[in-house]
């Protein structure tokens, strides 16, 4: 029986995490972890739950945006939506008037994520599966039908994602007689394929009357030859091989995680030491430290945590957009002796070329660049990948347009062979993004090398299906849905401004 959506409600739910400096970093010094919390109800009595994450003030603006989108949802059946999910995604993001306050970025995209997260939760519940399993069980054709490929076809087409496009163009161009110094002439569109596949290789290119004359270096020749037998064009269909084994592996072992909970910027050295000691005792081997306020403080704190975890465990650093490009290079160079795997968000999240410059400068130091938690949409991720600006892609379950848009980023990252290490933490982000990264490993990347998912040990007790961590790994959720549902008691007591938690705090606040 079709499930018609008859009601959508949204609430402003906030947790006063700033009181304990939880979540504090160089740019967000007093965050109150918050959500715009969405519930959709059907005439059949089913409910879907969704959310998007904020850090306090401004959540009320997102709530208003969700209400503005509700008219596109109420009155539709679940079957109608998922039967043309690409069309429904475009309906939400491309309304002729609403898109003016985006398009596909900022508050309106956060609201879109909250609404769509609720729809995905409803769909998974209707199928009786956790969301990751719903995705894993979908055919490649079903998966790509959920993705809006508009604006990214120069990096990834629907045919590539499905596997219908092979390397015939490349194969016909190069044949089997490649050697150092080979010169080929083909239409200009060929160059975009080379550029997308091998952005870091150097070659001499001349445009001659609409044709490309490409003189191949030895390294590029080797890479092109290698690609003939290792094409990433057939992304989803290739990953069908071994899916069952990878799913069983995840159910048994879980997905590797790293912790950020030990080293928020506002924590004292004593607190950092105690939390790090506890984490080591619990089996954690990957740690992230917040940096960017004062260089001397960063050096002291990084030295402390590196001494505690030893030389063999993994350390990452996160500046949360603090620096200009040149400052980022200089600052991170000073921190290089502590051997971070990556520096996260070293500059403005919108500065693609700045990230590329930083990546190039830090490469000799063996330090990668990670970003994505405030990347507006798939188009920006496309450009980050095309510019070789990131060595680690950090998707976010509530910043992009829900599962739909994250699917496109997972596929692009796989094509460009950049590992995905999702952003999590906040309120519910761990609960949601675990589904996406499990799907990525089982059905897309089939690779755990240099891959891990962030974990923050805050506020999980407010969810009906909280994350389960064992031996520093995410265990796959078993309950149907997208793990978005919060305890009713938590929602009511933390609703802003009338919930009892906030009523008490606001009553104590100075005039």
TrEMBL record:
UniProt keyword terms in alphabetical order: Lyase, Magnesium, Metal-binding
Reaction equations catalysed: L-fuconate = 2-dehydro-3-deoxy-L-fuconate + H2O
Coiled coil: none
PROSITE patterns: MR_MLE_2
Lineage: superkingdom: Eukaryota
Gene3D superfamilies listed in its UniProt record: Enolase-like C-terminal domain, Enolase-like, N-terminal domain
Domain spans labelled Mandelate racemase/muconate lactonizing enzyme C-terminal: 269-365
Pfam families per the UniProt record, alphabetical: MR_MLE_C, MR_MLE_N
Cofactors demanded by this protein: Mg(2+)
Single GO biological process annotation from the record: amino acid catabolic process
EC number of this enzyme: 4.2.1.68
Presence of the UniProt keyword Metal-binding in the record: yes
Protein name: L-fuconate dehydratase
Native source organism of the sequence: Gadus morhua
């Amino acid at each position: 029986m079709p499930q018609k959506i008859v009601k959508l409600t949204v609430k402003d739910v906030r947790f006063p995490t700033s009181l304990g400096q939880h979540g504090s970093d160089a740019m967000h010094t007093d965050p109150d972890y918050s959500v715009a919390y969405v519930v959709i109800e059907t005439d059949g009595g089913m409910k879907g739950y969704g959310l998007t994450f904020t850090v306090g003030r401004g959540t009320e603006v997102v709530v208003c945006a969700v209400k503005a989108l509700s008219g596109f949802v109420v009155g539709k059946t679940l079957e109608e939506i998922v039967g043309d999910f690409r069309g429904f995604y475009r309906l939400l993001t491309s309304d002729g008037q609403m898109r003016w306050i985006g398009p596909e970025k900022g508050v309106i995209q956060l609201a879109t994520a909250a609404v769509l997260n609720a729809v995905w939760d409803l769909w998974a519940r209707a199928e009786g599966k956790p969301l990751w399993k719903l995705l894993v069980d979908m055919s490649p054709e079903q998966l790509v039908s959920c993705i809006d490929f508009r604006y990214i076809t120069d990096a990834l087409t629907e045919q590539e994602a499905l596997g219908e496009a092979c390397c015939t163009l490349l194969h016909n161009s190069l044949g089997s007689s490649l050697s150092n110094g080979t010169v080929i002439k083909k239409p200009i569109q060929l160059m975009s394929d080379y550029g997308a596949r091998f952005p870091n290789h150097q070659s001499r290119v001349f445009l001659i009357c609409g044709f490309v004359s490409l003189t191949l270096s030895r390294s590029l020749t080797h890479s092109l030859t290698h690609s003939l037998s290792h094409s990433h064009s057939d992304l989803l269909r290739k990953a069908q091989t071994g899916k069952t084994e990878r799913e069983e592996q995840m159910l048994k072992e879980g997905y590797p995680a790293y912790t950020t909970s030990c080293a928020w910027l506002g924590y004292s050295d004593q607190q950092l030491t105690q939390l790090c000691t506890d984490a080591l005792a619990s089996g954690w081997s990957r740690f992230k430290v917040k940096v960017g306020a004062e260089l001397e403080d960063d050096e002291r704190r990084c030295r402390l945590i590196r001494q505690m975890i030893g030389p063999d465990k993994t350390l990452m650093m996160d500046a949360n957009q603090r620096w200009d490009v040149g400052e980022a290079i200089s600052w991170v160079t000073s921190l290089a002796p502590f051997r971070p795997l990556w520096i996260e968000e070293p500059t403005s999240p919108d500065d693609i070329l700045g990230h590329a410059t930083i990546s190039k400068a830090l490469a000799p130091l063996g330090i990668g660049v990670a970003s994505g938690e405030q990347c507006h949409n798939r188009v920006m991720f496309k450009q980050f990948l095309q510019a070789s600006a990131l060595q680690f892609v950090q998707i976010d379950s509530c910043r992009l347009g829900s599962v739909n848009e994250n699917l496109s980023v997972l596929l692009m990252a796989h094509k460009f062979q950049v590992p995905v290490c999702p952003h999590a933490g906040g309120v519910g982000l761990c609960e949601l993004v675990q589904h996406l990264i499990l799907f990525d490993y089982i059905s897309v990347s089939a690779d755990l090398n240099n891959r891990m998912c962030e974990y923050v040990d805050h506020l999980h007790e407010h969810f009906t299906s909280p994350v389960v961590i064992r031996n520093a790994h995410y265990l796959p959720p078993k309950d149907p849905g997208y793990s978005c549902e919060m305890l009713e008691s938590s929602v009511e007591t933390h609703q802003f401004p009338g919930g009892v938690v906030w009523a008490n705090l606001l009553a104590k606040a100075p005039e």
